[in-house]
Amino acid sequence: MPEGKQFLIRNYRASDRETVRRLCCETGFIGNPIDPVFEDRQLFADFLTGYYTDWEPESAFVLEVAGEVRGYLLGSRKPLRQQLYNIYQNAGLLLRGILHYARYNAASRHFVHWVLCHGWREVPAAPRRAAHFHINLLPEARNVATTRALMDAYLKYLHDNGVKRVYGQMVTFESRRGAKMFERYGFRVVNKSEISKYKKFHPEPVFLCTVIKNLEENNQLYSRQRG
Which of 152, 187, 167, 24 is nearest to 178 (CA)? Predict the structure, then answer.
């Protein structure tokens, strides 16, 4: 993001829905567009954003830069409700993927095959009774200040609503993120698993990490030791 550009963190609005869905697809492949991996943007956005924008919008925040939405944080502090929704949603999305399978290109068919045969085994375990979040920013808006502001807005919201812990599942690889970075932000890595769907597209092993933060100890992004 160019120096001097002002940004704003605000609550999600219904009018942001299509922009959030587009940003989800523009950042869905290790921070880049999902298209080389999976061509069905509507299904992809439904899977990653549908619950948050349609059922728990009060737990979502967006990043505005120069008046345009350039990033978002979608969260949930109602894990049981979200898990029940996923049971229904995932069955419908799976059926849609299977019905469209013959129309997909080779990369998309490989993605569907990975979901059916490997995805459920490779995604690391996550706590069932904790709030969680999903965060994405466009590359030009991705920096420490914007990420911290988005996260702090969400963590304060959770703390104000009596939530005691929160987790996220973050994509990591050798040159991007790591346990020390999460610790700096007060998170603890509790599970980590290599995600095989990226092997054809990325030279380094790609992992998905489950990270947890205790909000009773610190409800801001940086750990207290940082000051």
Answer: 187
Helix %, strand %, coil % of the chain (to 5)? 45, 25, 30
Please state, in angstroms and rounded to a whole number, the distance separating the CA atoms of residues 218 and 203: 37
**What's the average model confidence in pLDDT over 113-137?**
91
CA–CA distances in Å: residue 138 to residues 22, 41, 166, 175, 195: 11, 17, 24, 18, 22
pLDDT tens digits, 160-208: 999 999 999 988 876 565 666 677 778 888 999 999 988 888 888 888 9
Burial of 175 (0-12, 13-18, 19+ CB in 10 A): exposed
Q: Which residues contact 105 (CB under 8 A, 6 or more apart)?
A: 39
The answer to whether 74 and 49 have CB atoms below 8 angstroms apart is: yes
Could you give the CA distance from residue 64 to residue 143 in angstroms, rounded to a whole number? 13
**How many CB atoms neighbour CB 91 within 10 A?**
10
Q: Please, which pLDDT band fits residue 71 given cuts at 50, 70 and 90?
A: very high
What is the separation of C-alpha 47 from the centre of its chain, rounded to a whole number of angstroms? 11
Count of residues in the chain? 227
CB 152 within 8 A of CB 221: yes
